[in-house]
Design goal:
2 helices
Length: about 55
């Protein structure tokens, strides 16, 4: 294993995602909370392209 798995665990802990909960009620609550946060995110990101003004 590489150190990246530790980084994943650290990020999950910082964000508040419990990885090793055994109670299904706590897990269901966490899933609902994550889904409500995801619902607030935009569906897609539009990248605005600007025309380059290279007329010196």
């Amino acid at each position: 294993m590489s150190p990246s798995i530790g980084l994943v665990f650290e990020v999950a802990a910082l964000v508040g995602i419990p990885l090793f909960d055994q109670e299904s009620g706590v897990l269901a609550t966490s899933i609902e909370l994550a889904q409500s946060k995801i619902a607030l995110l935009p569906k897609r990101i539009r990248i605005k392209t600007r025309a380059v003004d290279d007329d010196f």
